[in-house]
Specification:
By secondary structure, the protein is of the alpha/beta class. The protein has a single domain, classed as Rossmann fold (3-Layer(aba) Sandwich), CATH 3.40.50. Helices cover about 30% and strands about 20% of the residues. Helix 2 runs parallel beside helix 6 and helix 4 packs parallel to helix 5.
Length: about 260
């Protein structure tokens, strides 16, 4: 037992590590293009070796990568309906695959149903490690070239990071340097969702999915129920306003401030 006697000083905060100090001192991300209303979504699909396995539950004997691409295809069908109802509202979608390395399969751009579905059908056999953090970092950079205030990263994975940067640190960096402008969602497929609880610390969300039907339901909840719904229900004003105030309870998104000459 340790006792502190006669200590009148306020308790000190624990010293930050060098990496934490560097993270908080880094400047805010800057868009490479003018930004306006709309939403840009980067879909990050795990294509590591473990995705060749069958889900442990549900009785589906297909490999997880086949189940996942089918579920993502069904999710994207919601975009077809959204675009038909709101043709003037920009929705940008990009698709990435990650294993040991990251592959930009469909660059983030105006929603192209055929390109995305063709890319999903052409998914290669899974092999290699799991570079979740690297994929998040690459997608984040592309989101700042997409031209919308609203930015989303949606990760579908069945395992822990084994290659490249730590997804925990990348998530913290993105949250700090974007000031909440990049929303992060994880779908833990056939793996304990608690492995990704760090996303909750940066106001992101994590959901689990043990089999194909659960994966489709989780993706629908996030994509249609949150991302697309939020895209319209944000109460955004013109880009020259002092702030953008959402109606959905999420942190406000501030448009880029113009520098004084």
């Amino acid at each position: 037992m340790i006792a502190l006697v006669g200590c009148r000083e306020s308790p000190r905060e624990p010293a930050r590590s060098d990496s934490e100090a560097r993270m908080t001192s880094q400047p805010r991300y800057k868009s490479e293009v003018d930004e306006g209303l709309g939403a840009s979504v980067a879909i990050l699909l795990d294509n590591s070796g473990s995705m060749e396995d069958r889900p442990r539950r549900g009785g589906d004997d297909r490999p997880k990568y086949v189940v996942a691409r089918e579920a993502i295809g069904a999710m994207l069908a919601a975009t077809d309906s959204f675009v038909a109802k709101h043709p003037d509202f920009p929705i940008n979608v990009g698709l990435y695959r990650f294993a040991t390395h990251v592959e930009r399969v469909v660059p983030i751009g105006r929603f192209d149903a055929r390109a995305l579905r063709d890319a999903l059908e052409a998914t290669t056999k899974p092999v290699g490690g799991t570079a979740i953090g690297d994929a998040m970092d690459e997608a984040r950079a592309d989101l700042y070239r997409a031209g919308t205030f609203r930015k989303y990263i949606l990760v579908v994975t069945d395992g822990e990071n084994t290659e490249g940067r730590s997804p925990r640190r990348v998530a913290q960096e993105i949250a700090n340097r974007s000031e909440g402008a990049v929303r992060m969602y994880f779908v833990a497929f056939d793996v304990d969702a608690r492995r990704f609880d760090f996303v909750k610390d940066v106001r992101g969300e994590v959901v689990g999915a043990s089999d194909g039907p659960a994966l489709r339901a989780s993706l629908d909840t996030i994509y249609r129920g949150k991302i697309l719904a939020e895209a319209l229900d944000v109460g955004e004003t013109l880009p020259d306003s002092s702030r953008v105030v959402p109606q959905s309870g999420n942190p406000p998104i501030k448009p880029p401030q113009k520098r004084k000459p």
